[in-house]
Each structure stands twice: as C-alpha cells, then as structure tokens.
Amino acid sequence: MAVDLSPIDEGLLEQIANIHGMPKGAFNIRKDGQLVQRSSSANIEISTKTDHPGIDIHIAPGTRGETVFIPVIVTQAGLKDVVYNTFYIGEDCDVTIVAGCGIHNESHQASEHDGIHTFYCGKNSRVRYVEKHYGEGSGTGERILNPVTNVIMEENAHCEMEMVQLRGVSSTVRDTNAELGAGAKLILTEKLLTHDKQTATSNMKVELKGDDSSVQVISRSVAQDDSVQIFNPLVIGEAACRGHVQCDAIIMGHAKVTAIPGIEAASEDAQLVHEAAIGKIAGDQIVKLMTLGLSEEEAEQEILEDFLN
Amino acid sequence: MLELRNLTFEVPVSEGAQETKRIIDDLSLTIPDDRFTVITGPNGGGKSTLAKLIMGIEQPTSGQILFNGEDITSRSIAERANLGIGYGFQQPARFKGMKVKKLLDIAAGKKLPMLACNEYLAKVGLCSASYLTREVDKSLSGGEVKRIEIATILARDPQLAIYDEPEAGIDLWSFDRLTETFRDIHEARDGRSIVIISHQERIIQLADEIILLRDGKIAATGTPEELLPTLGFVAKGVPGCQLTEPTELHLTEIATTC
C-alpha cells in the first residue's frame, strides 16, 4: 500500500462510493494525486497510463455482473490533481463503474480535482456509471471539481450515467460529451445541490449519430443561499433518433439558476424534445407534509431529499 | 371532540384593501367523538375555509377552536396534526421524486408493512403493487392523486379526519369503494370522527349529522332524513367496484411529446 487511509479518508470514501475498507474485485483508490491501492480482476485490468497521469481500465468482452471502483480523495490543501481515466468496455459486457471524488479541506488554500473520464462502450454492452462529488472541511479554501466525461457508444450499447454532487463543492464546471452509434441508448442523470456562494456549471453535448439511437437527459438541482447554477445541455440529432432533455430546478434564498436546454436536429427523422422548469418549493407541498405532522423545516428537507433522490 | 366558538374569518376584498369580506361569520359548532358529519352547501359558502381553519392552514380573525377541551386556536398545523386532526385536500399536492410508499410512511409516522399499504390503497380503489413505487408527480392522473391523498389520511388514522370533497375527480366506480370505506370507519365506532365536505347524496346519506353552510353561517343542521328532502339531490353512484391499474409507463422509453 502506497498511502495509509485515515478515518477522514474512510469517511470520504463512504460518502462518494459507499465503500467500507477495500472493495472486492477491481478497484483503484487515489489520494492526493497518489495511488493508495489497486486491484485488477480476471476480466478487468487496471493499468497506469504512460502518457498522462491516470489509468486505463480494460474490461474484457462478455464480462457480466462485475463492479469497478475508482474513487479519488483529496485532503491536501493547495493540490491540483488532474487525472485521465479511460475505460475500454468490450462487447456484450454488463458492468457497473463507481467513481467519485471527495475533498476534505481545512485550510485557506484551494484543493482541486479534475477527472477526465472517457468511456468506449463496445457493441451490445451495458454500463452503469455512478459518480458522486462531495466536499467537506471547515477551511475557507475552495473545493473545486471540474470533471470531463466523454462517452463513445457503439451499436446497441446501453449506458446509464448518474452524476451527483451532494454538498460542499465550492466551484464546479462539468463537461459531458457523448456520441451514440446505431441503436445505442444513453440515460444521463445529473443531480446537483449548491449552497452558500457555490457555483456550478454543467455543459453537455450529446450527438445522436446512428439510427434508432436515443438519449434521455434528466437534470435535477437545488440551488440554495447565494449559489449560482448554469445548465447548458445540448442534444444533436443526426439520424432517425430520439432525444429528451428535462431540467428541473428548485431555487431557494438568493440563488440564481439558468437553464438553457438545447436541441439541434440535422435529420428529418430526429425527434427531439426539451423542457425546463425552475421554481421554489411549492407551498402546497410543505402544507401537506405539515398536516402529516412534520415541522416546516422537516417538510422542506423531506421535499428536497426526495427531489434529489 | 371539536368545538368551534364564534369563529370568524375575514379577508380583504382585494389585495391591499382595507375593506374586508367575511367568509366565516360568527360560527359556533360542536362535533362529538364517533360522529360522521357532512358539511354541504353552495360554492363559496365557506366550507373549505372552515376545514382549513380547523387544520390551522388559515388563522381565524376571531373566535376559538377547541380540540378535546384544549384551545388550539394558536397551534401550528403540525401541532394540530400531532394532536389527532387530519385533513384530506381537495386539490392534493404533487411531489417530484416522492414515491407513494414514502408518502404513506410519512402519513403513518412509521415505515409501513406492505400489507398495510395494500390495504390503504385497496380502500381507495387502487392496486397497491402497481402504485407503491410510483412517484406522486404529474405522471399520475388527478383521480389517482386524489385517491392517494385519501389513502394518506387512512394511513394517518387521525381521531378527527376532515375530507374536503373526496369525491371530486374520482370516477363513480372508485367512488363506490370510497363510500364503503367511510362507512366502515364510521361503523367501527372507535372514537374517531369524520367530517366530510361533500355534495354527493351517497356520502350525505351516511352522515349522522348534516350541516348546511351558506354565507359563512350554519343555515341548517339535521339528520339525512330531515335535511335530504330539502337539498334536492339527483346524483347517484354507479354500483360495483373494481381496482384501477395505472397506465403503463415505459420509463425507459423516451417521450416525444410534452
């Protein structure tokens, strides 16, 4: 083991990847820019990149029912960690990938992690990707996460991506890009909660290149206090495809939310729809829960939890 | 027992205006335990306002509300709920992301066993297996949300349950099932009182006492035998009962219309 894990590290890992101790199967745990521990399995090989910092994850064709964990934690102030992780998922796979980054910053210096993840999803493969971002610590130093996610899907690949930013991330710029081949299907769910003076920008570009490809973009966010969020999802239909973009935001306090869902069709058989809604918690929801015995604060908390979960 | 003493509720005639309009006018009323009361009367007569005053959603301009002898006039909604008052909304709220099961759990104040959930939903004519994991959002029809709303009150099982037009938006077949449920609760005679705001003869017939509310005042009270002939009803329910299945939603399919 290159680096030992402290109770703070273990707490962060639990928050972002729901793991206790070392997971089973294939995993790669990174802390403050260094490898903590890595394990490959018979079907999943994790190796260090030679050109950039980061790892290559090769998943053999036909791998089914396996989970790969690649969480990152940052506890060192003043660190800017940039990492490139590339997944090569073979044909006919059915796998789950759990990523995420937790930052614990007690100082006045910024901590930053930029994860550049690229997924090559082979024909007929099914991938479930879960990524959680979380920040904590009493310091004034910024906790910055700027993830880039690229997804290249071959014929009939199926991918569900759930990207969640729970709390405590001062600033984030998220870039998500996807290219879908014929029959490929992508469900992209993004859940964000910002508070205090945090800022979050999410840019998405999904190109539907093959016939019968489809994408569903679901964005749910809560902006509290003085935080600012900008959503900029764009779906481009270049074939007989279907795309649906849905942005829902709850706004509270003095927060500001901008939602600019975009659709662009370059084929007469492309069926694209977008919808966006921003609003405060409906008064009738709070009153209903109060008639069930909850206080106003409890009702608000319950509504937000359900909205994001 | 619920006691309303000289309850008055006034609102400004228009926003910011000094002049007020009296919605509830010096109303006094006692609802004993084990009583099935139906409040009926013309639209705008103050029925829903009265129910909201009892639940604490609106505050009276003057007067007192006593529940089991305790003055609850200045108590909050949640406090009244925890004292044993329940309220089924005429137009229920929808919750994005909240599952029917979760709402029932919150109503009951505990995690409910599946069997109990099945029972509550069956009582309002819904097939439990198909609904428990559904979200209480716009994917449900008005009638479905309304029946789930009523199920939350059944799960909460308050000492005093107020239902604001439970029949509104519900098809006649489910309505039949609902009237049976109200009758069963009432026949149990276990100290619980039901107050239903309704225009439906089928519900009015179940009542121990009918209160006719007009212009914020009690215009008449009496048993169904006494008052029904004067109300001039023609509406009848349709016999028979069936459980409704939800419209199949293919969640992985992408909607092309919004």
Which outline of chain B best applies? globular
Mean pLDDT across all residues of chain B, rounded? Answer: 88
Classify the helix fraction of chain A into a percent range: 10-25%
Q: Which residues of chain B sit in consecutive blocks of at least 5 with pLDDT less than 50? A: 234-241, 249-258
Count of beta strands of chain B: 10
Q: Specify the biggest β-sheet of chain B.
A: 6 strands, mixed
Number of helices of chain A: 3
What is the CATH topology classification name of chain B? Answer: Rossmann fold
Distance between the termini of chain B: 48 Å
Helix content of chain B: 25-40%
CATH class of chain B: Alpha Beta
Please tell me the total number of domains of chain B: 1
CATH architecture of chain B: 3-Layer(aba) Sandwich
Q: Strands of the largest sheet of chain B, in order across it?
A: 6-7-8-3-9-10
Q: How many distinct beta strands of chain A?
A: 22
Query: What is the percentage of strand-forming residues of chain A?
Result: over 45%
- Uncertain spans of chain A: none
Strand percentage of chain B? 15-25%
User: What is the element string of chain B, with H for helices and E for strands?
Assistant: EEEHEEHEHHHHEHEHEEH
Which series of helices and strands of chain A comes N to C?
Answer: HEEEEEEEEEEEEEEEEEEEEEEHH
Structural class given helices, strands, pairing of chain B? alpha/beta
For the structure shown, list the relevant keywords.
heterodimer, A: 309 residues, mainly beta, 11-stranded mixed sheet, globular, B: 258 residues, Rossmann fold, 4-stranded antiparallel sheet, 9 helices, disordered C terminus
Verbal overview:
The complex is a heterodimer of chains A (309) and B (258). Chain A has 309 residues and is mainly β. Chain A has one domain. Helices cover 11% and strands 55% of the residues of chain A. Chain A has three helices and 22 strands. In chain A, the strands form two sheets. In chain A, strands 1, 2, 5, 6, 8, 10, 13, 15, 17, 19 and 22 form an eleven-stranded mixed sheet that branches. In chain A, strands 3, 4, 7, 9, 11, 12, 14, 16, 18, 20 and 21 form an eleven-stranded mixed sheet that branches. In chain A, a hairpin with a 5-residue loop joins β3 and β4. The N and C termini of chain B lie far apart (48 Å). Chain B has a single domain, classed as Rossmann fold. In chain B, the strands form two sheets. In chain B, strands 6-7-8-3-9-10 form a six-stranded mixed sheet, sandwiched between helices. A four-stranded antiparallel sheet of chain B has the order 2-1-4-5, with helices on one face. Helix content of chain B is 32%, strand content 24%. By secondary structure, chain B is an alpha/beta fold. Chain B is globular. Chain B contains nine helices and ten strands. Classes of the chains: A mainly beta (309), B alpha/beta (258). Chains A and B meet through β17, β19, β22, α2 and α3 of A and α2 and α3 of B.
